[in-house]
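Notes from the 1:1 (GR / supervisor)

We went over the backlog. Supervisor wanted to see one worked example end to end before approving the batch request, so GR pasted a single chain during the call. The sequence is below; no edits were made to it. Supervisor asked that the structure be written out right there so they could see what the output format looks like.
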Amino acid sequence: MCRPRLQLYALLAGLVASGVLQVRGMKVYTSGEVEAVNGTDVRLKCTFSSSSTVRASAVSVAWNFRPLVPGREETVFFFQDKAYPPPDGRFRKRVTWAGDIMGGDASIMLHQVKFIYNGTYTCQVKNPPDVHGIAGEVQLRVVATASYSDIAILAGAVAGAIGVLLLVLGFIVCVKRCHRTRVGHPERDPNNPDKPPREWKDPTLCHPAEAVHLYMTCDVPFEIDSSDGVISEESSNEPVSSEEEGDSSDEEDEDDDD
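Structure output shown during the call:
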């Protein structure tokens, strides 16, 4: 009697080891606990993995709710190939699909949550033949204001962003200072350290010895007659001497004698 049982167990063990007979099961993962401020939207995250090939038309997702106070379980949302929101109840027009079946996501979004939404939410996913598995649970806690931890996380994120910005600005300033230092001080040739450093020259300037000087000369001064605008030689203001007058009179007398 024991020998046939041993043979059966050995056969089952061989089938499992060879992969012919596999233990199937759906694995569901949730965030565990979520906190939301009254009147805001919150995402209830649920992901899954299946040992069978996932087909969008075959996978079904069922979300249910258990309140904190004793009461019956209530349907929140159902999805199979398309969304089926609840036609009535506390979640009517307050829940939408936020998942992706082919991506292994079965999450939903609750809109404008209220204090009556406090409780446990279960996420059950089936992908035939994977129809067995433990449902994931999410504990939702609706509060009046954000908790200290949320404020601290937000403050830390803002401080981190400011710190990154300051580091970037400091790096830019250092680069500009290094560039100015290199421009203001000549560099030595790394291949020939004994060689005097090259001097940096501004291409817009030149050495005084290399400058070209332009001169403008004018032998005969000119003046412009304001009456008719004609350019004429500038008249001399020096008085005529008596000798020059005598010479000129003698020349006139000789002309008369002729």
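Supervisor's comment: The mean pLDDT is 74.
Batch request approved.
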